[in-house]
Design a protein that fits this description.
This protein is α/β, with parallel strands linked by helices. The protein contains 8 helices and 10 strands.
Amino acid sequence: MVQTGMVLASNSTSDNDVHIETTAKQLLGEENAARFNKVLKPDETISWEVYIPNNDATETPGVFVYVSPMNTGRIDSRWREVMDQQNLIYIAANNSGNKVLTSRRMVLALFAVRALGQHYAFDTSRINVSGFSGGGRVASRIATQYPDVFTGALYICGVDFWKKDKTPNVDRLLQNRFVFLTGTRDFNQRETRQIQKRYIKAGAQHTKLIIVPDMAHKHPDAIYLTEALQFLLDKD
């Protein structure tokens, strides 16, 4: 399927696994794309891997933007059932791993929302950002710099506290929801706990710390991801 220069194609994994490919110029127009020229050339091909929830929900799905420490954006196979249950569209950029400039990774995550919107309807009040390890640190920058776009964030085994000069709307930020997920054997556990305390001290009322027993520095399984997302999606 081709739409205004953007390519949308099903992957071989399943009909619910989709690949979106475009350029900044096609996505934003030539003038707006030029604003990002330092990190992304207007005609450079960029792409995301998407998983569409497989369920019978009548409600519009939310979005789970993921920042991977690896160069592939493909979803962890254990997470598909969670996206189905929580009615979330998963999207993650390709070629956005830890060796890529942070500014570029942030732009690709932001563009993910716009690129997805070219093809699918979603609930703008349920857009969450997440990442693992170095991707978690990038997600923490995105969530704090763009609190009007992302209503919640899940930091997995990696998180940074925000910088005041990079956080234009702290009051809005503190209204959002945050989950800090680590493991008892994760080398980032202590730092994760400390930063969650700093969020609370700063006034974030909706935070949750999940420490997975016997988990090292890796992805959580479906059970703990479900626990995290249920907290992020709680409207109360």
